[in-house]
Amino acid sequence: MSKTCLVLTGGGARAAYQVGVLKAIASWYPRVHHSPFNIICGTSAGGINAVSLACYNSSFRLGVKKLEWLWARLHTERIFAANWSGVSRHIGRQWLSRMQSEHLEPRPFGLFDNRPLRHLLNQVVNYSKLEKQIHQGSLDAISITTSRYHDGHAVTFYQGNNKIANWRSSKQEGVRQLLHTEHLLASSAIPLLFPASRIDRHYYGDGSIHQLAPLKPAIEMGADKILVIDLINKSQRLNRPPKTPGLAQLGGHLMDTIFSDSLEADLCHMQRLNEFIASLSEESRANSTLRTIDNLHLSPQLPFEPLAEENYCHMPQAARLLLRMIGISPRQDAAITSYILFESDYIQSLIRRGFDDTIERETEIKNFSLNFHYLMCLFFHLRLIWLINCLDNIAQRYR
Predict the structure, then answer these.
(1) How far apart are CA 315 and CA 329, in angstroms?
(2) pLDDT confidence band for 82 (50 / 70 / 90)
(3) Where are any strands of DSSP class E within the chain?
(4) What angle do CA 344, 348, 353 make, to 5 degrees?
(5) How many Å is the Cα radius of gyration of the chain?
(6) How far is 12 from 339, CA to CA, in rounded Å?
(7) Between the chain's N and C termini, which has fewer beta carbons within 10 Å?
(8) What are the tens digits of pLDDT across the range 97-137?
(9) Tens of pLDDT along 319-363?
(10) Angstrom distances, CA of residue 274 to CA of 120, 185, 277, 292
(11) What is the DSSP letter of 57?
């Protein structure tokens, strides 16, 4: 059986869209069926989704249900300190940290205090289940990609079976470790917005920053098929007259570039490599270490900015004021707001949109997963045998 990998990209609050996609895919499988993904790779907020899903890999629908339950109960103050007292204390600590002696290490800078997110992850994620899923064979590997600040390397921390070895290439490396909350905080630490996290001796930030080859961890861990759930809309843009770009628009443009451009290049490179392998003779393919890797790229059909504008009023007032103080006007340009708006109405809208977009591509996704048809036929065949046995037992009782 081929190994299918799920790649979840970063995007802050936009990652709720991935929950809707997974919810639609889970609805096509039996209630107690294991996950169709042997390998799960996550970056930034997608890393939080990846770990939460991997903890229940032996029961796919249960894992998606748990993930939806978590997102449905999120709000901004559970991600970062957004009330008046929390914002003022965080600004005071940052200021005092810069005033202290040079012999003391200052706090990592971040516009927002993400300690509430650390507390939430410690509460809801049972990291010990990851090793159990791997030991049972339900999961081959789970990886979280971060960016190491001191040398600019993209470091992928992974947990998997013994067949997977560490890898190292230009600006990228894979390190085997038991995953925990600091890995998730590091991978989701959007620059300037959230502080970096310290793992061992180094500081790490959002994994999308220096991730030149987002699909490399999946390939290194043995994936034969890769399903990518992206969070950047490319087919349609907002129909608005051009205006002078402000700080919010520039910041949103940079975030879109960080989270998406390297993925597009990697997918294009993989497609060309697949075409090259297909052009080789059978003898050349047998002697080559290259292999064809199928991939399917799912992305939003509509932009998220209008939803962020509609729900901007639900963001806590202190957080809105802090954004105003640094020159960001989220109502006029919601690109940045769409990443940090963790409010219920906005999140539910993203989940519904992800579900609807996936249902529209149901045939394409099922055709991509060749194992799906085999498993469905096997499942209905077993149910038919069970039904026949039940009818036979009933018949024997009345003889």
Answers:
(1) 13
(2) confident
(3) 4-8, 39-43, 141-148, 153-160, 167-169, 172-176, 197-199, 202-206, 225-229, 294-298
(4) 150
(5) 23
(6) 5
(7) C
(8) 766 666 667 778 888 888 899 999 999 999 999 999 999 99
(9) 778 777 766 665 556 777 888 889 889 999 999 999 999 999 999
(10) 42, 35, 5, 5
(11) T
246 CB neighbour count, 10 Å cutoff? 14
CA quadruple 145, 146, 147, 153: dihedral sign: negative
Specify the residue for token string 């989701």.
188
The share of the chain scoring above pLDDT 70, in percent, equals 82
Amino acid in the structure at residue 182: E
Contact, 343 vs 75, CB < 8 A?
yes
Residue 373 pLDDT level (bands cut at 50, 70, 90)? very low
Whether the predicted pLDDT of 220 surpasses 50: yes
In one-letter notation, the amino acid at residue 271 is: Q
